[in-house]
Structures are given as structure tokens and as C-alpha cells.
Design brief:
Helix content: 40-55%
Distance between the termini: 50 Å
Structural class: alpha/beta
Strand content: 15-25%
Strand order of the largest sheet: 3-4-2-1-7-9-10-8
Largest sheet: 8 strands, mixed
Radius of gyration: 37 Å
Number of helices: 29
Length: 817
């Protein structure tokens, strides 16, 4: 015989009750069954409210009573055929009249005792079970209605009564000796030997099913609910959670203790003793197989079976030198808590015996603190034990799985994934069974932590990287296009999905936690709200998404001002913006230290050489122990083009004008020709090489005559430049005579950085440069005779975007590892 239980949502409406009847109609063809019903969805809450209002002499309790009556009577009128309606509705009203009389007494006495409250609450199951039983009979399912109070015998612990299994098992077996049909019974309720109605506490209807199953040595218990079974994590917080096909009793107990709401621990106890399998199934998705709970865990590729959590907890810490080596401290501590009926969720103690931490429901923290401080009053006064230290707004995350036993690396993987996302662990607990590893974290990090852990243990083949992009001009647009084009490849071959969550430019901003479609980002951004950089950063931080990367494609100092706060919130940064790394050295150092401290990355490969591997190569040389002797570079694509093109009889002013028309220069070419941009780049390379230089330490040769610098407009500048063409022609002619070419070169040597226009011969790597290419030459102890040379396009939206993309991939690989 099977025992089935249907929850409140399964009997919450006419449609769902019809669905239940369909399910049970298929069972009647196979065998007899016992089916347990909860109260209709929402009714138990109404019964709690109606009792409280009646005891408070609030006459509005009568309106709530009418609502309860209307719910059941209207359901009966819809479900039950007209010829049978009179009898069924009369019986429902008879039970409802009993409830009305009870509430009238509560109203007059102005008191709702635990005993009376249990009786009030019992009406939900009594009404729903009778109503569904009558509908099943009408649908051809042969059932007998049983009020579980007649067979489930408990003590008088009203509110959470304990079952007397010896008497209950006998009563159930005796009843079923004479029953020839299937049986419908009430969940959640029982009675004392005196006939007083009791309730079984949280998860009571599941417990009823388990009690019946154990008493009848059932072949299986089925818990029908509104979800597909036990899931790897809470699907409301982890969207990629999935149903587990099978879990062991122990795994289910651990998961349900730490917040898995599908079942409740006592439900498993009677079935556990009798080794009865339990199925969790979905009333509204009968084709889905659900989750099987039995003695053994299933074979799986995952070492962790599930992730559970509890919110709104407090951690209390008892510390003091007077605890060390003193027997009985733990006994006194937990004895004091037990005497005050305070449930301890988690315990951890330092091996030094100097402290004991324990976790409880936040609602009980004040009571717990008072109880413990009273117990250790003398020790606290003597200074041997400190006053109890309390931390609130916490949550517990537990990873559970039989396969965790003897599997190395579980804890390392857990803490690594949390650490890389800036999630601080307040306390840790693991039993010697190795089935459960629990961590206490800040409540604000719970959703982030659940997703990080779930990805690490269940979806390690694909990790979601959440990206926030500021600046969607030439570089930003090219980046988004590249991200879209490579999305499938990255997910399939590299195992991560780039999810662009935020976009912003100078006018508009847009944040969508589920991701912005890259096929229509321009239109979506145009529909976004007015740009506010401070608000954009705040929302990014408040979302607290796992694996977050902030991408700054601007050259805006205002964006840079947020870098420290972003890194401090454990969000990595990728940027081609040179201002952060070429400002004051102390600010540069602070960003580096903050990123290191928070375990995140600050990536800026594109600060020098656009998409060329300039900075990474320098760091690899340095980190591998090579010594940097000299760095030389043509670091400006604009100046490279100008001096590579300045040949023959061309006028310098014409070459500069041509470069401007092709978009190589800034709107005012003097911003390129003054050498300051190149100075910033060599400054960045100097700092990466280990030299603590400031911008003013870089010696920059001024190549422009004074009239050109003083010109008020760009047009005036070109007039003055044409007047001074001879200055540049002379330098070119002198170089030609010596078989040399002019190159605008940045150099770092002996801790000194300079930028100047130089003539180089054919033995120099820069001699063969063409177009707008950049070239960097590293002379080191290992590359002393022939420098290590990096050459390629050093400017342009596509190559710069590719460099930014490369940094995003490097961070993604770090987060995935």
C-alpha cells in the first residue's frame, strides 16, 4: 500500500483538486492507498488570524470566518454534483458551526490557550479532507474518510505534539484491518488519549503521511507539492538550480535542516526507521519523475548533492581565558540555552578552547544573550569570561552530499569561489562525517554566495560572468560587437557566459540583472534612464552579483574616481583609461593594493599599445626573475604615422593635417604632438617595472615651436605650423644624410623616463616601423644582446576593444579556476 500526501497548493483551488482526482484515479486501478491532505492554500493562515482576532475581542474575526466558509462552500458548489451538494455543504457547515461556537467562546473569554489554538487550526485539514473525499467518491474513486485524530495519538504538547508511536501504530493497524477501500485522512492533526485535539507542528501533514507509512509498512510514500522535487538550491535565488533525481535520507535531513523547504526533518524519521522510500512529486507536472529519497545516495558526477541556506540568524560568541581547560563550560552554555527553549542551529569551537560560537534564530538572540550572561554572571564579573558578543544579519549556507566523504578539495573549492567574489566567511562548521560543510556569511551576500557555490559545484562547465560597461563609443561599441560574435564559442569552448548587465554613456544608462540583449543594446540603452555615474555604480554594488567585472571604456577622470570603491566591493575592473595608472603614484599604489586585498583584478593591458601584449609581457619578465635594463617604445600610433609618413619632400604641416583627416589625431593635434600621452604610457610601464615615478619625473621634449603652442585655435595652429615647416624639414634632412629616420621615442633606463624625437639608424628596431604601428623593445638580462620586441597596431577601436576583451577573458579564467 502506498501513502500519498497533497499539500495546500494541491488542494488550493477547484482546478488543482480536479488534478488531484486525476492522479488518484490512476492509482485506484493498481492498488489501495492512503491519501493525506493539508488545508486548502491560505486557510491555515486565516485560522491563525481568526483565533488571534477573536481572543483580542476584535469583532472582525467574524468576517474572516465568513471568508473561510465561502472558500469551502463555493469550492463544493463547483465540484460536487447538484444531487449531492446538499449533503456535502450541510456537513461542511456543521463543522464550520463548530468552529464558530469555538471562536465565540474565545471571544468571550478573551483568551486563546495553546489547546484551543490547536483545535482552531485543525479545522483547515478537517474541512479540506472531507470535501476532497466526497469529490473523489463522485469521480469513482472508492475512498473512506478518516479523521486522523481517531488514530494518531500524541502527548499534550499543543502546537508541536509528539506522537506516541506504539499506540498510534496499533490504532492505525487496527483501523485498516476492517477497511476495504482506499482512505482519505487529515494531515497535521492528532489527539491526546483524553481526546484533546493537537497539531504536529511545522511540516505536520508530511509527518502524518510518514507516520501512516511506517505503521502500515508502506511500499512508498509520495509527497505531492507544487515543485518538481528537491532541487540543488533554492530556485528563487539560484535560477539555474535543477531537480535532484535521488538523495539519501541523510542528505535530505541535512538539506531540510538548513532551509530546503520541500520537506521537514521529522517527516523522514518514521520512514527512515522502516527504510521506506519517499518520493517528492509535482501535482502540476505529473510527467516529471520527481526526487526519490531512500537509504542510498545516487551515483553522480557531483561531489556535492545540494546547497541549502537559512536567513535571519545571529552568531553569538562566548570568549574568555577562564574557559581554557575548564570542564563543563559547554555543558553550562548549552544547558542554559536548552532551559530557555532556544534551538541552536550551528556550533563551532576553537581548539584553543578560548571561544565557542553558536548560531540561533535572530528572534531569539536577546533571550539567548540574557540566559547565557545570567549563567556566567560570576565569571563575567571576575573578568574570566567576556560578555557575549553578537553578530546579526547573517545567513548560513550548507553544502551537502554523501559523496563529499573522503573527497579532497571540497573545502578549498568552496572557500576559493567565495573568496574570489569577496564573500567573507564569519564561521565554519563541518562534522567528522564530512556530509555537511556549513559557512556563516553576511545575509546581504546570500544570493551571491548560493550562485557562486552552485556554479562551482554543479555548473563548473559554464560560469556566468556579469559585466558592467561604461562608455559605448567607438571602443565600447566594438567590444559589444565582439562579445556578441564570440558568445557561443566562449560558452562551448571556454566554459563561461558573458552576461552584459549594465550599459552607460554620457546621456543614458541601463541595468538589467538578466542581461541586455547584445543584438539590440543600442535601442535598449536609448530607452534607458538619464545617466548618473554615481547611481550606476551604486546599483551595480547593490546587485551584488557573482563574478562581476566593471569595464571603463572612457578617458574620463570622473569614472576613475570610483575605481577604489568598486575594487573594495570585490568587483574586478578592466579599462583602457590611462588616467588611473598615470596619476599620483600613491593613488596608483592604492588601487593595486585594494585589488590584491579583495582578491579581484585590475586589468589595463590596453593602457599601452592598445591590443598589444605590452604590460602582460613586462609583468611576465619581472615575475619570472628577469631584470629590466631598458624599455624603449614608439607608443603613439598617431606620432608613429606622422613620422613614418614624413618622408621625401612632404611638408610636416601637410602630414599632420592628413593624419587629422584620417582620424589618427585628437581634435587638436597638439594633444598628440606635445608628447604628454606618450609620457603617461612610459610612466605606466615605469611603474609596472617597479619604479616609483610621478608624471613630472618624465622628461618630455617639446618638439613644437612656441608660436604653434600659443595659437588660440586649431586653425591658427596649422597656420603657425606651416610657417615653421623648416624646423621639421631640417631635422628630417639631417637624419636622411646620416641614413637615419625620425622616431618619437619613449625610454626608461636607470630609473629615469624620457620622451623625445630621435634619429635612429638601420640597426635600431624602430628603423623599419611603418604606418601607425607601435613598437616596444625590452632590453633585459635575458634579452641583452637582442631586445625582446613587440610590434603591431597600437591604436584603433577594434584592436583596443580586442585588448579589453582579452582582459575580460583573463579575469573570467581566474574566476573559473
Amino acid at each position: 500500500m502506498k501513502v500519498l500526501k497533497f499539500g495546500g497548493t494541491s488542494v488550493g483551488s477547484v482546478e488543482s483538486i480536479r488534478k488531484v482526482a486525476e492522479i488518484l484515479s490512476s492509482y485506484k486501478k493498481k492498488e489501495k492507498f492512503v491519501v493525506v491532505f493539508s488545508a486548502m492554500s491560505g486557510i491555515t493562515n486565516l485560522l491563525v488570524e481568526v483565533g488571534q482576532k477573536a481572543s483580542a475581542t476584535d469583532i472582525s474575526y467574524q468576517q474572516i470566518l465568513k471568508t473561510i466558509e465561502q472558500k469551502h462552500v463555493s469550492t463544493a458548489k463547483t465540484l460536487i454534483d447538484v444531487k449531492n451538494q446538499g449533503k456535502v455543504i450541510a456537513q461542511l457547515k456543521l463543522v464550520l458551526n463548530e468552529l464558530q461556537d469555538l471562536l465565540q467562546g474565545v471571544y468571550l473569554l478573551k483568551e486563546l490557550s495553546p489547546r484551543s489554538n490547536d483545535l482552531v487550526l485543525s479545522f483547515g485539514e478537517r474541512l479540506s479532507s472531507y470535501l476532497v473525499a466526497e469529490f473523489l467518491k463522485q469521480e469513482g474513486v472508492d475512498v473512506t474518510f478518516l479523521d486522523a485524530r481517531n488514530v494518531v495519538i500524541t502527548d499534550n504538547g499543543f502546537g508541536s505534539a509528539k506522537v506516541d508511536f506504539k499506540k498510534t501504530d496499533k490504532a492505525i493497524k487496527d483501523y485498516f484491518k476492517d477497511v476495504k477501500t482506499s482512505v482519505v485522512t487529515t494531515g497535521f492533526i492528532g489527539s491526546t488519549e483524553k481526546g484533546e485535539t493537537t497539531t504536529l507542528g511545522r511540516g505536520g501533514s508530511d509527518y502524518t503521511a510518514s507516520v501512516f507509512g511506517a505503521a502500515l509498512d508502506s511500499e512508498g510514500i509520495e509527497i505531492w507539492t507544487d515543485v518538481d522535487g528537491i532541487m540543488t538550491a533554492d530556485p528563487r535565488k539560484v535560477k539555474r538550480a535543477f531537480t535532484l533525481p535521488q538523495v539519501s535520507y541523510i542528505e535530505a535531513m541535512e538539506m531540510s535542516h538548513f532551509g530546503a523547504k520541500v520537506i521537514y526533518p521529522p517527516t523522514l524519521q518514521p520512514a527512515f526507521k522502516k527504510n521506506i522510500p519517499i518520493w517528492i512529486k509535482n501535482t502540476f507536472n505529473t510527467a516529471f519523475e520527481g526526487t526519490l529519497i531512500n537509504a542510498k545516495t545516487s551515483a553522480t558526477d557531483h561531489s556535492v548533492k545540494g546547497i541549502s541556506s537559512i536567513e535571519n540568524i545571529s552568531l553569538l560568541n562566548l570568549t574568555g581565558s577562564g574557559m581554557v581547560g575548564v570542564p563543563g563550560v559547554s555543558g553550562r552554555l548549552f544547558g542554559a540555552l536548552a532551559r530557555n527553549f532556544i534551538n541552536v542551529i550551528l556550533i563551532t569551537q576553537a581548539s584553543s578552547e578560548h571561544s565557542i560560537c553558536f548560531v540561533i534564530d535572530s528572534k531569539e538572540s536577546a533571550k539567548a544573550k540574557a540566559a547565557v550572561e545570567e549563567e556566567f554572571e560570576h565569571e563575567i564579573k571576575a573578568g574570566k569570561i567576556d560578555k557575549l558578543h553578537e553578530k546579526d544579519n547573517l545567513a548560513i549556507v550548507a553544502v551537502v552530499g554523501d559523496n563529499m566523504r573522503h573527497t579532497p578539495g571540497i573545502a578549498g573549492k568552496l572557500f576559493s569561489s567565495l573568496g574570489k567574489n569577496g564573500i567573507n566567511v564569519v564561521a565554519i562548521a563541518q562534522g567528522s562525517s564530512e556530509i555537511n560543510l556549513s559557512v556563516v556569511i553576511g545575509k546581504e551576500d546570500l544570493t551571491k554566495a548560493l550562485n557562486v557555490i552552485h556554479e562551482s559545484f554543479f555548473l563548473s562547465d559554464v560560469k556566468t560572468i556579469n559585466v558592467f560597461v561604461v562608455g559605448v563609443g567607438l571602443i565600447g561599441s566594438a567590444l559589444l560587437k565582439q562579445l556578441q560574435k564570440q558568445a557561443t564559442y566562449l560558452q562551448k569552448e571556454k566554459g563561461f557566459k558573458i552576461n552584459v548587465v549594465g550599459l552607460a554613456n554620457s546621456k543614458k544608462m541601463l541595468i538589467n540583472e538578466n542581461g541586455v540583449a547584445l543584438t539590440s543594446w543600442k535601442e535598449k540603452l536609448e530607452e534607458g534612464e538619464k545617466a548618473n555615474l554615481k547611481e550606476f555604480v551604486k546599483r551595480m554594488v547593490d546587485l551584488n552579483l557573482r563574478n562581476s567585472i566593471f569595464v571603463d571604456n572612457t578617458s574620463n577622470k570622473d569614472v576613475v574616481s570610483f575605481y577604489h570603491d568598486i575594487l573594495d566591493e570585490s568587483i574586478s575592473i578592466v579599462t583602457p583609461n590611462k588616467l588611473a595608472n598615470s596619476g599620483l603614484f600613491k593613488d596608483y599604489k592604492k588601487l593595486q593594493e585594494t585589488a590584491f586585498k579583495r582578491g579581484v583584478k585590475l586589468m589595463y593591458e590596453t593602457n599601452v599599445g592598445a591590443g598589444l601584449p605590452v604590460i602582460n609581457t613586462l609583468n611576465d619578465l619581472k615575475d619570472s626573475g628577469d631584470k629590466i635594463i631598458r624599455i624603449e617604445g614608439v607608443l603613439s600610433g598617431t606620432l608613429s604615422y606622422i613620422f613614418n609618413t614624413f618622408k621625401g619632400d612632404k611638408k610636416f604641416s601637410d602630414v599632420v593635417k592628413e593624419a587629422k583627416e584620417k582620424g589618427f589625431t585628437e581634435p587638436d593635434p597638439r594633444d598628440d604632438l606635445n608628447g604628454k600621452d606618450v609620457a603617461r604610457k612610459i610612466l605606466i610601464l615605469s611603474r609596472e617595472a617597479g619604479f616609483n615615478l610621478e608624471f613630472d619625473d618624465v622628461v618630455v621634449e617639446n618638439i613644437l615651436p612656441a608660436p604653434c603652442l600659443k595659437a588660440k585655435t586649431v586653425e591658427d595652429f596649422f597656420v603657425e605650423l606651416e610657417k615653421n615647416n623648416s624646423v621639421f624639414s631640417k631635422k628630417r634632412d639631417e637624419a636622411d644624410k646620416a641614413n637615419k629616420v625620425l622616431r618619437f621615442i619613449a625610454k626608461l633606463e636607470n630609473g629615469k623616463a624620457e620622451v623625445s624625437l630621435q634619429a635612429v639608424d638601420s640597426t635600431h628596431p624602430f628603423f623599419s616601423l611603418s604606418g601607425s604601428d607601435n613598437m616596444i623593445a625590452y632590453t633585459t638580462e635575458r634579452y641583452k644582446e637582442r631586445p625582446l620586441v613587440i610590434k603591431g597596431p597600437g591604436a584603433g577601436a577594434e584592436v583596443t576593444a580586442a585588448g579589453v576583451f582579452g582582459d575580460i577573458i583573463r579575469i573570467s579564467n581566474y574566476l573559473k579556476g
